[in-house]
Amino acid sequence: MATKTDVSISTCIDSYGSAIGMPQLCTDWASNQIFWLVVTLVAIFFVLSKLALPRISAVISERQGTITNDLAAAENLKSEAAQAEEAYKKALEDARLEAHKIIESAKSEIKQELDVAIKKADADISVKASASEEAIAEIRKDALANVKSVAKDITSELVKVLGGKVDSKTLTSVVNAKMKG
C-alpha cells in the first residue's frame, strides 16, 4: 500500500525524485559540489604536473634548443656566405687584373709585331723608292740625251732650211749651252 505524497524531500528535489530547476544552483548541494570540484581540480593538477607538464616543458625546451641551434647554424652559414662572397669578389678582381695584364701583353706584342712590320715595310718602300729614283734618274738621263739629240737634229734641219751651213762641233756647243740654262 503505497500512499501518495506530494511532499518534497528537499528544496532541490520534488516528490517524484526529479530536480527542481537546475541542480547546480541548488544551495543544499553547494558544499558537496565544492568538495568534488576541489577533488577534481587537485586530481587534474596532479595529472597535469606529473604527466602533461613535464612532457610539454620537454617539448618546449627541445624546441628552444632546436631554435637556438638553427639560429647558430644560420649565423655560421651567414658568415660562410659572407666569406664566400669576399672570396668571389677577390677572385673576380684577380681575374680582372689578370685579364688586364693579358690585354696589355697582347697590345705590347701586337705593337712590337706592328713596329717590325712597319720597319720592314719602310725598308721595302725605301728599296723600291731608291730603285724608282734610279729608274727616274736613268729615264731623265736618257731623256736629256734624247732631248739633246732631238735638239741637235731640229737645229740642224732648221739651219739647213734657212740656207745655212752647220758644223757639228758648233751645233753641239750651242745646244749644250742652251740646255745648261
Summarize the structure.
By secondary structure, the chain is mainly α. Helices cover 80% and strands 0% of the residues. The longest helix is centred in the middle third of the chain and has 132 residues, at 30-161.
Task: Characterise the protein shown here.
- The chain has 181 residues and is mainly alpha-helical.
- It has one domain.
- The chain contains 2 helices and no strands.
- Helix 1 packs antiparallel against helix 2.
- The radius of gyration is 67 Å and the shape is rod-shaped.
- The mean pLDDT is 86.
- Give the low-pLDDT segments: none
Distance between the termini: 186 Å
Largest sheet: none
Secondary structure class reads: mainly alpha
Helical region count? Answer: 2
Mean pLDDT rating: 86
What percent of residues are in strands?
under 5%
Order of helices and strands: HH
Number of structurally distinct domains: 1
- The total beta strand count reads 0
> What gross morphology would you assign?
rod-shaped
How helix-rich are the residues, as a percent range?
A: over 70%
Report Rg: 67 Å
